[in-house]
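ingest -> fold -> write
write: protein_1
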Amino acid sequence: MTDIILLDGGMGQELVRRAGDKPTPLWSTQVMMDHPGLVAEVHADYAAAGATVHTTNTYAILRDRLEGTGMEGQFEALHAAAIKEAEGVGVLAGSIGPLGASYRPDLMPAHDVAVATYAEVANILAPKVDLIICETVASVAHARAVLEAAAATGKPVWLALTVDDTDGTKLRSGEPVADVFAVAGAASAILANCSAPEAIDAAIDVLATSGKPFGGYANGFTKISSGFLADKPTVDALTARKDLGPDEYAQFVMGWIAKGATIVGGCCEVGPAHIAKLADEIRAAGHNIVAP
């Protein structure tokens, strides 16, 4: 019997689906502002499904993401809105997404610039959350910078790495996942996220050697298309898999738990039904679902 921390699932795709709006480059941030209360509904559904950690809808609230959108002056207000939507739901993980764009390690700025940029976000989140989760980390340089910024707040920090969908032992940058360990001393846990579950299978084997609590939360995309790697992408450039329903997803995650993973959940295209099924399977296997 093992204690398992159950993360929630994806927020952005769930919001876009429920809102019915055409996706914009601001993705979940735009939906949050256009449909007040919808983020809170998604948080509540994940809580009802059994999740014990809830990720704030702050992934894309970064100054560089807001440039040219008309929301440049709402940086602080957007963070406040995301925190308000999550109030009272349970243990909060303050999400910090990648600078530039997801899956684009080539867009990482110089180390000092990155640390200062991430620190501004981390300092806004830290007083309001229980831990900080640095998501979709695509390179060693990215890991070093975001950890330096987040750890300075004194909050526990989880590092979530996005890996190559064809070789989960490598980051999106092409660097070995294991190379992150040398800069990850400040991390309380190391996870793999926003990658195909098959790739996370391989990443889990590497993370198991880190000496830290580890786990994973996969996405449900067929692949990361070239359209999504362009400037100011929108999520309609990505296609959801048809073979990753709640039952199939739970099988992947239970395999990670069998390898020692103790922090699991879902990313894009993994919704409340997936998390509910996963909670059932975790309990059926004799494990406890706990909060951190």
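write: protein_2
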Amino acid sequence: MSVPSARAARKAVIPVAGMGTRFLPATKAVPKELLPVVDRPALQYIVEEAARAGLGEVLMVTGRNKAAIEDFFDRTPELEAALEKKGDQGRLDAVHESTDVAQVHFVRQGEARGLGHAVLQAAAFVGDEPFAVLLGDDLIDARDHLLEQMLAVQAEHGGCVVALLDVGRENIDKYGAVAIREDVQEGVVTITGLVEKPPVDEAPSSLAIIGRYVLAPEVFGVLRETAPGRGGEIQLTDALATLVERGEPVHGVVFDGRRYDTGDKLDYLKAVVRLAVERDDLGPPLRAWLTEFVAELPAEGASQA
């Protein structure tokens, strides 16, 4: 059984090999992870979150047609020189932020065989220490320290830790779901079972796994033995379920903060608006315009002729 590791997590893994089919045709040429959320790509928010939590080394598990992601986190001397010559310090600082936020590494997944398979590609990078996995469709507000809490739980209890959100039983078939025992402490539960996208009437609870994990290195051995599951893919949820069956500790941190979903077109638009209205430079005029725009909409059912 896992015991709390003497080594704190230092590394994060971000799978970015997906094709982004829900955002076609834009994603024919631009990786979904680089679509702007206001003026930064969603992926930059994720890397910044890892860095704030003390995870200064980040591995991105990429696939074909994702070279633009590597370019984004690389230096751009010509652009930097042009901005410096113009004296545009604000934009120059923004460019530097995207390249200096963390030490970013890349590895190719080669074949899209599921989240578990993507995580397995990080084995050499991670070694024998705990690590975090952050999925790019979930943006966690910088004011909510979910990842920091998960790292603390893993350091105290060992094993693996997943982020949980109560999505309502009617929506649980879209997520990995968990069965739980008791609260270890406020907002932290012991997980006794996991199932990927169960039918609503078979779900063990309405608590869904969202895109944050802190994993013990033992997960790699389990993933190597995990057969393809739902959708013919190697599911990380199935590997975690095996760890639970073996008596390894798996805990969940129940999140009730601000989360922005960028994996769906409507939710992506909501995320852009919500984050924009929080900004000092954009918020006041955007809120004023939104108020005017809504007031000008025709009443529901009214003729638009």
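write: annotation protein_2
The first strand starts at residue 11 and ends at 15.
The chain is about 35% helix and 25% strand.
pipeline exit 0
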